[in-house]
Amino acid sequence: MLGVLGGMGPMATVDFMAKVVRNTPAACDQDHVPMVVCSASNIPDRNAALRGEGADPLPAMRDALRRLEAAGATCIAIPCNTAHMWHCALQYETPLLILHIVDAVICELTARKGDCIGVLGTTSTVEGRLYQERLSCKGLSCRVPDAASQDAVMQAIRLVKAGQIAEAANILQVQAEALIDAGCSQVVMACTEIPVALASVEETLRTKLVDATEALARACVRACKTPAQGLACAA
User: Fold this and answer.
1) What does pLDDT average to in each consecutive run of 10 residues of the chain (235 residues)?
2) Out of 153, 169, 185, 206, which could bridge 197 as a Cys pair, Cβ 3.0 to 4.6 Å?
């Protein structure tokens, strides 16, 4: 049973759940992946914590993990990129596999060695090099927005959390196109609020975007349907 450590934010968690359902080959209810969800919206702000300006979210994430274990989860997904800055600490706390969102994204990339991948995410995700380190191991370089553009990305993420989707979409489309114009072959939507905003983006741009939420959902389906496969990429 898939345990979802969610609530970061709630809308992104619902989007993730829908993508698990959509990516599950199923002819009836019983074919779907059983899920238990802890939408722990009380978890302190991850970005504030990483800036040294807020409470440590690890204790609250640990509590949510314990609830998922008690409910019978057999593997865990965290549909929040920035929360993966605590992935190692959380994995240390449990024998259950916590799927890593960046590893899931790498399975979705069609880029070739030497290509440049754009990353749109929170400032903490970008400055913490959550994607850069793992992509580098695959021979891929990374490009992230400059300081002013990163401020715009953060504004858009806050707008999504406040339910102002259309305004966020306008900002994020500009930022994604800027990375493509700068030479990126693909752009990772590396914050789970971003795919919510760009769900209806026009097809030409969509083909260049990689949805981290969807990538994690597909990895979860693989892990739950064929446990021995784990995070192995689909052929």
Assistant:
1) 98 98 95 97 97 97 98 98 98 97 94 90 97 93 97 98 97 98 97 97 94 98 76 57
2) 169
Alpha carbon distance 204, 202 (integer Å): 6
According to the model, what pLDDT value does residue 183 have?
96
pLDDT at 110: 83
Distance CA 191, CA 12 (A): 9
CA distance 56 to 193: 21
Domains, the chain, ranges and CATH?
2-101+214-225 (3.40.50.1860), 103-211 (3.40.50.1860)
Longest dimension (CA), the chain: 48
pTM of the model: 0.94
CB 209 within 8 A of CB 187: yes
135: phi then psi, degrees, rounded to nearest 5: -65, -35
Residue 26 to residue 221: CA distance in whole angstroms? 11
Q: Which pLDDT does position 113 carry in this prediction?
A: 81
CA dihedral 19, 23, 29, 32 (to 10 degrees): -90
How many angstroms separate the Cα of 65 from the Cα of each of 69, 127, 145?
Answer: 6, 26, 33
